[in-house]
Design brief:
The chain is an alpha/beta fold. It has eleven helices and twelve strands. 43% of the residues are buried. The structure holds NADP nicotinamide-adenine-dinucleotide phosphate.
């Protein structure tokens, strides 16, 4: 347990609900390892209290905080500045206090692309990405795939109106031209072309662990050697990843994205270049009973 002193600095996560957040486990493990006088706490904040809570954070000298559902968009008007990255995807997951002002950014992109830039690094410029789902996390995934330079990016959703809204919401930048949207029925045509297949839907998430966004027949058409990437981290691996691995695909689960978006946030708050990433990963795995 971290020793609280008169100088302990405050970090935390805001959300509603927030009790199930894994961020305190990961961040407090890093803080303890670094021997720093900080603590990272969960702050359950209802939407109607967001503005007053942020003003209170400024008053008590909070150094920075993570932002989760349902505040990722609602926080934006309360900040003095947001980075171009957060602007691009229209959501903030990390806020820091800089020169007495709140500055927001989004580290989900960095988290998502981290395994694709390290362990599975390759030239993506001739590759095809197929992304299932068009919600909040899909925005970071699309931005990440654009950043990696994929030749083609296809976003697949179940509702044409929401797909069109997803596409139109990027119209301020040239980014909307870099991907195409498709209805679910088009998947049989897209899967055989996919070098990277990403599940950003919650299908298969605990407790519905037997579900998968794709049927066995659909996933059978995934090319051998393709990467199947599921943003879900409980269970680890999901049904989707198990099916994909049986087809000879490489599987990446959501735990590393969770770790790496946290690493990126902690670097901002602590002004550090190097963090105990393995300690953070291990803390999460132990907490989830994965014990690797
Ligand atoms: P979200 O904004 O609610 O988006 C969910 C998307 O999934 C929507 O496009 C929704 O479609 C689609 N969807 C839901 N049920 C579906 C179904 N039965 N069939 C087809 N599509 C379906 O949620 P989110 O914030 O993007 O999060 C999505 C998942 O990513 C969650 O499991 C979350 O835990 C995970 N995640 C992981 C990390 C990480 O660090 N590993 C980070 C962020 C999120 P409609 O638009 O048609 O409703």
């Amino acid at each position: 347990m971290t020793k609280i002193t008169g100088k302990t600095k405050l970090l935390g996560v805001i959300g509603h609900p927030v009790e199930h957040s894994l961020s305190p486990v990961m961040h407090n493990a890093a803080i303890a390892q670094l021997g720093l006088d900080y603590i990272y706490l969960p702050f359950p904040i209802e939407p109607q209290n967001l503005e007053v809570a942020i003003a209170g954070f400024a008053a008590v000298g909070v150094v920075g905080f993570s932002v989760t559902i349902p505040h990722k968009q609602a926080i934006i008007p309360l900040l003095s500045e947001i980075t171009p990255l957060a602007q691009t995807i229209g959501a903030v997951n990390t806020v820091s206090r800089q020169n007495n002002q709140w500055v927001g950014t989004n580290t989900d992109i960095e988290g998502f692309i981290a395994p694709l830039q390290t362990t599975y690094k390759q030239d993506w410029s001739q590759k095809v990405a197929v992304i299932l789902g068009n919600g909040g996390a899909a925005r970071a995934v699309v931005a990440g795939c654009i950043q990696l330079g994929f030749a083609q990016i296809h976003v697949v959703g179940r509702n044409m109106q929401r797909l069109q809204e997803f596409r139109n919401s990027w119209s301020n930048s040239s980014l909307a031209d870099k991907f195409q949207v498709h209805q679910w029925e088009e998947l049989p045509k897209l899967i055989p072309q996919a070098n990277l297949l990403v599940n950003t839907t919650p299908i298969g998430m605990y407790p519905k662990v037997d579900e998968s966004p794709l049927s066995v027949e659909e996933i059978a058409n995934l090319p051998t050697g393709a990467i199947a990437y599921d943003l879900i981290y409980i269970p680890k691996p999901t049904q989707f990843l198990q099916q994909a691995e049986k087809q000879g695909a490489i599987a990446i689960d959501g735990l590393e994205m969770l770790v790496q978006q946290g690493v990126a946030a902690l670097k901002i708050w602590l002004h550090l270049e190097t963090l105990p990433v393995e300690v953070m990963r291990q803390a999460l795995q132990n907490h989830l009973g994965l014990g690797e």
